[in-house]
């Protein structure tokens, strides 16, 4: 005689208790998902603004460096003193450059004579982006001294 095994179907009560998610469980999962997505969205927004500020800072640094090199290349005797770093718009001490991918960059510079020594000038160059994140956050400022000591080439006497 062979022994037969018969499978007994699980009871209906046990199946309904394990049938799936309840509405409350599904709502809790959706709320947790929403909080996670809000956090990730905020992260993307901060990353985008930081990237924009970094691009502007790179652009302002490049423009300020170029302007300083141009001022160093001008013959000493033709440099004109003056300028205003804060709000000057005199074309002799101001430029507005449009940099692709960055926007407009305002550059101002000053040339100041050193008291008691006509052979030395102090030069400051400041560039700032004009965009939303630009002013203050993407400022680049460089300074240098220019001197001319050879009276044979027209330098002023000390």
Compile the SSE list and pairings:
Layout: H1 12-17, H2 23-73, E1 94-99, E2 103-114, E3 117-129, E4 140-147
Antiparallel strand pairs: 1-2, 2-3, 3-4
CA(first)-CA(last) distance: 127 Å
Task: Write the element-wise H/E pattern from the N-terminal end onward.
Answer: HHEEEE
Please give the largest β-sheet: 4 strands, antiparallel
Q: How many strand segments?
A: 4
Estimate nothing, just give the exact number of structural domains. Answer: 1
What does the oligomeric state look like here? Answer: single chain
Uncertain regions: pLDDT < 50 for 5+ in a row? none
Determine the structural class based on helices, strands and strand pairing: alpha+beta
Give the overall shape, derived from the CA principal axes: rod-shaped
Residue-averaged pLDDT:
86
> Helical amount among residues, as a percent range?
25-40%
Helical run tally: 2
* Main β-sheet, spatial strand arrangement: 1-2-3-4
What is the gyration radius calculated from CA atoms? 35 Å
């Amino acid at each position: 005689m062979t022994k037969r095994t018969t499978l007994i179907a699980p009871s209906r009560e046990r199946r309904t208790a394990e049938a799936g998610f309840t509405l409350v469980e599904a709502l809790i999962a959706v709320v947790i998902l929403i909080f996670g997505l809000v956090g990730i969205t905020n992260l993307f927004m901060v990353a985008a603004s930081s990237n924009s500020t970094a691009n502007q800072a790179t652009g302002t640094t490049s423009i300020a460096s170029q302007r300083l090199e141009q001022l160093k290349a001008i013959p000493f005797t033709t440099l004109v003193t003056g300028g205003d770093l804060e709000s000057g718009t005199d074309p002799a001490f101001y430029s507005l450059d449009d940099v692709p991918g960055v926007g407009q960059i305002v550059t101002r510079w000053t040339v100041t004579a050193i008291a008691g020594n006509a052979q030395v000038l102090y030069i400051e160059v400041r560039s700032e982006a004009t965009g939303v994140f630009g002013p203050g956050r993407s400022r680049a400022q460089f300074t240098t001294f220019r001197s001319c000591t050879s009276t044979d080439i027209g330098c002023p006497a000390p």
